Amino acid sequence: MGLLPYLDKHKIEAGCDEAGRGCLAGPVVAAAVILPKDFEHELLNDSKKLSEKQRNLLRPIIEENAVAWAVAFVDNEEIDAINILNASFEAMHRAIKQLKTTPEHLLIDGNRFKPYPEIKHDCIVKGDGKYLSIAAASVLAKTHRDEWMENAAEEYPDYAWSKNKGYPTKAHREAIKAHGTTPYHRNSFRLLVEEQLSLGF
Q1: 18-60 pLDDT, tens per residue?
Q2: Angle formed by the axes of helices 52-65 and 132-155, to 10°?
Q3: 3 state SS of 188
């Protein structure tokens, strides 16, 4: 069965999703997308089920065909200040605010959301595998964030961000252990594994 085009046919719906919540470095990035009611694309699915090549193919198709779309970033310093959950909500709010068309209803991927002023929302667990607009938002959030991390990797090549995109891979943690942190690391996160943290105590 394919993804659903909308929850309420009679409302302007925006799908919202974020990328990078579990990363050790870089921003959390959210996207909000309003698709035409008749939008279809055989590839479009939860971005985690797509290859990098497929996501990069879909990104311009979504951006060109959407009624409106927006992407917003909350950087690592702000994540450290307000915590990752609040930073995720903040990124979504910023994306929604930037939309050129104001939505009447929000479809939020996940089980929690901080209500956006004057727009009703539904939280949909694994929504990026259920609704086209959330899947589209997941693709935009992921591709824009990956692009940011690839640029940051040129600045700090020791951490293999072009491969791991800031996620807590073994190689990423080893690089932190060897080279320390960068200005893009989230200092409120456990950057080293617990065994490493307990060394010498």
Answers
A1: 999 999 999 999 999 999 999 999 999 888 899 999 999 999 9
A2: 120
A3: coil
